[in-house]
């Protein structure tokens, strides 16, 4: 299943657009909130002025007739309807339809009414109908109840007086709508200018903010063109871009290390194939020459037997080399081990006996502790490791030296030391002997030298068990096999 393609839209553009959209939404919400708050406040002021007019009218009831009072109230740009206690009705001022269309409101509406040049006292009547009193000197009429109703673009206040009359005052909200309209256009223009300035500032800020990404892009392209050693090395590692840069450098280090390992592995493989071909060419050439002689040349019985023995010997040598190469390949791929409790002392004694049979003049001494040394391992593979070490020791001593095999328990590990009294291994060659197809100059002849795969195979098997095989420093040649997980002796019984 293929992964979804990575979105490659401009990060700068998306950031600028996202921030501008967010700012536009916030400005829109702010405009709506301001308009709603201001509109509510202006309408409340109109209601308060209507109550002031109603209180002033209540103070004049009884001192002027209804027609005069209605004319005075209508001069404030209000639609006035006065219903007297005897059922009569007086109307003055513009009609509600004219107020709804928004006629200009006279200046007197912007402040408290002052009929007759006097300042009326404000009553305490509220919109919910709570009774109040005008408390004007000489006035005996008060407001018993009042109610406010807003419909369309009109605000109507109905006040009932204590003498039974009713005053209806209606004011238009056209001025409020005009103010809110002007405010709306001002907010729209200011928001447009603000967004334009914000867009320019965001482009500059985002461009500067995204500059490290351009640096990373240039570095990646430079590395792709061969500058493998280039790194970002961020000054701060605790920021978002710093963490990305650190991860980028770590990835490059890993890629470069993998590239070096791959090149080194390829070089080792080429060298191994070259050495293996060289090693196989010698026995194959010997077999071909002997076979050609046997076929083309008339020989006596003794000569034919010598050539046949030579063919067998060279074929065996080539077969051993092929077997070792196949085993080395299995070690590289990962050996399948049949793990079980194994007594290192028993394995050592068995391999020492085989070494004595192969080289009768070789003196093999086994040193063991009093108890069993048990490890979890593959009996056959561990025997192959010890067999390779003893064969290497016999080859180094010419088949007639002294080899000491010491088995011990150290720090919870089973340890086997194989020491011979041969010429020893130089310090510079103690690690090189574990390379494939490597033989020291003193052991290059066909009779005493192997193919150079015994020690690499032995180390590979040891490491497959979780242990190791090393060549210890010292005058004598000592190989140390270490295996983990010591098994208690009763388990081996």
Task: Give me some keywords for this one.
Heat Shock Protein 90; single chain; alpha+beta; Helix Hairpins; 493 residues
What is the topological layout?
Elements: H1 11-60, H2 66-74, E1 79-83, E2 89-92, H3 96-100, E3 143-151, E4 154-161, E5 166-172, H4 174-209, H5 211-224, H6 240-296, H7 301-333, E6 340-343, H8 344-358, E7 363-367, E8 374-377, H9 379-396, E9 402-410, E10 413-420, H10 454-464, E11 468-472, E12 477-483, E13 486-487, H11 489-492
Parallel strand pairs: 7-9
Antiparallel strand pairs: 1-2, 1-5, 3-4, 4-5, 6-8, 8-13, 9-10, 10-12, 11-12
Write a structural description.
With 493 residues, the protein is α+β, with helices and mostly antiparallel strands. The protein folds into 3 domains: 171 residues, no CATH class; 88 residues, Helix Hairpins (Orthogonal Bundle), CATH 1.10.287; 156 residues, Heat Shock Protein 90 (2-Layer Sandwich). The chain contains 11 helices and 13 strands. A hairpin with a 4-residue loop joins strand 4 and strand 5. The longest helix has 57 residues. The chain starts with 10 loop residues before the first helix and ends with a helix.
């Amino acid at each position: 299943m293929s992964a979804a393609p990575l979105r490659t839209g401009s990060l700068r553009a998306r950031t600028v657009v996202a921030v501008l959209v967010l700012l536009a939404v916030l400005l829109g919400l702010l405009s709506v909130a301001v308009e709603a708050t201001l509109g509510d406040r202006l309408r409340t002021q109109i209601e308060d002025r209507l109550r002031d007019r109603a209180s002033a009218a209540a103070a004049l009831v009884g001192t002027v007739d209804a027609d005069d009072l209605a004319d005075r109230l209508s001069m404030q740009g209000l639609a006035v309807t006065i219903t007297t206690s005897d059922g009569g009705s007086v109307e003055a001022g513009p009609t509600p339809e004219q107020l709804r269309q928004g006629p200009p409101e006279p200046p007197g509406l912007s402040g408290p009414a002052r009929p007759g040049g006097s300042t009326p006292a404000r009553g305490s009547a509220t919109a919910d109908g709570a009774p109040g009193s005008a408390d004007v000197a000489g006035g005996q009429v008060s407001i018993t109840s009042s109610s406010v109703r807003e419909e369309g673009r009109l605000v109507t206040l109905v006040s009932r007086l204590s003498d039974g009359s009713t005053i209806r005052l209606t004011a238009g909200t056209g001025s409020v709508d005009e103010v809110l309209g002007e405010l709306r256009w001002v907010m729209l223009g200011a928001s447009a200018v603000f967004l334009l300035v914000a867009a320019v500032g965001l482009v500059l800020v985002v461009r500067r903010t995204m500059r490290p990404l351009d640096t990373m892009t240039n570095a990646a392209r430079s590395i792709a063109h061969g500058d493998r050693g280039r790194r970002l090395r961020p000054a701060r590692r605790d920021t978002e871009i710093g963490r990305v840069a650190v991860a980028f450098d770590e990835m490059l280090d890993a890629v470069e290390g993998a590239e070096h390992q791959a090149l080194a592995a390829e070089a080792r493989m080429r060298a191994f194939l070259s050495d293996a071909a060289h090693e196989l060419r010698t026995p194959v050439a010997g077999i071909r020459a002997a076979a050609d002689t046997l076929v083309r040349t008339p020989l006596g019985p003794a000569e034919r037997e010598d050539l046949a023995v030579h063919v067998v010997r060279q074929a065996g040598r080539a077969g051993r080399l092929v077997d070792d190469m196949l085993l080395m390949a299995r070690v590289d791929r990962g050996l399948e081990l049949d793990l079980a409790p194994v007594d290192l002392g028993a394995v050592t004694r068995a391999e020492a006996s085989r070494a004595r049979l192969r080289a009768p003049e070789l003196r093999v001494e086994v040193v063991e502790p009093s108890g069993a040394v048990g490890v979890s391992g593959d009996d056959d593979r561990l025997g192959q490791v010890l067999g390779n070490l003893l064969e290497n020791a016999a080859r180094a001593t010419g088949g007639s030296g002294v080899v000491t095999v010491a088995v011990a328990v150290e720090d919870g590990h089973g340890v086997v030391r194989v020491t011979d009294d041969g010429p020893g291994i130089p310090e510079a060659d103690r690690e090189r002997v574990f390379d494939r197809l490597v033989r020291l100059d003193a052991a290059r002849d066909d009779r005493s030298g192997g193919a150079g795969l015994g020690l690499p195979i032995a180390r590979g098997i040891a490491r497959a068990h979780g242990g190791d095989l090393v060549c210890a420093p010292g005058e004598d040649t000592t190989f140390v096999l270490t295996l983990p997980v010591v098994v208690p002796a009763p388990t081996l019984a």
